[in-house]
Amino acid sequence: MKIHTLQLGELRANCYIVETAPNRCVAVDIGGDSRLFLEYIRMHNLKLTKILLTHGHFDHIGGCEAVHQATGAEVYVHEDDAPMLTSEALSLASGMAFHEFNQLTDWTVLFGDCYINDGDCTFRVIHTPGHSRGSVCYVCDNVIFSGDTLFCCSAGRTDFPGSDPYAMKISLKKLYDLEGDYKVLPGHNESTTLDYERQVNPFMKEFRG
Fold it and tell me: Rounded CA gap, 31 and 12, in Å?
């Protein structure tokens, strides 16, 4: 599984392009800069089939509609964050974005924990509310695409509308309890590993016993 990383949009959110088969890929979050994204997959001769959203905040969905229209890729979002895809206010774009909000026109709703198959890859969807009600992590092989749930030495903010500190604690415990180690690819900043976060992340300190 080959993974490419782009930083897109005004908040430079990480967009991950996962090659799921020869000349085939899915994207995890497209926060903006749709032209750059489309040119990148064209240069790498990749056909985009799916866009997996970790949550519905504007900095993770800003480029999705243009890419969806250009490629026909199916967009996936958890049911609790689906209303954000058409709302400047709920997506936080009205108070924080510097560019026009492009609402999405079509998507597939995810319910709870489930699986998404594409090419040779299977993505396990883990519902991890806290940063938003519908935040999810995607697990594929030994990689966790953690969105704004888990960061290197930190965790997502819980002071936004729809955020919940208690739900975040439960979600982080759910990740902490996964068996084995994983590479963690978050929605912002650098990558890390789950073992490292288990040892040093202050938001996981209480789980260490």
Answer: 8
Sequential DSSP letters for 66-88: HHHHHH-PEEEEETTTGGGGG-T
Q: Retrieve residue 76's tokens.
A: 């996936």
Residues 146-190: tens digit of each pLDDT: 999 999 999 999 999 999 999 999 999 999 999 999 999 999 999
pTM: 0.96
Half-sphere exposure of 195 (CA within 13 A, CB side): 6
**Count of alpha carbons within 13 angstroms of residue 112, beta-carbon side:** 0
Nearest 5°: the CA angle 112, 66, 30 is 50
Burial label, 54 (beta-carbon count in 10 A; 0-12, 13-18, 19+): buried
> Taking the CB of residue 35, how many other CB atoms lie within 10 A of it?
12
Q: Are 135 and 149 in contact (CB under 8 A)?
A: yes
The residue to which tokens 């089939």 are assigned: 49
- The answer for residues whose C-beta is within 8 angstroms of residue 109's C-beta and 6 or more apart is 76, 77, 78, 79, 82
pLDDT digits (tens, 9 = 90+) for 90-127: 999 987 756 778 899 999 999 988 999 999 999 999 99
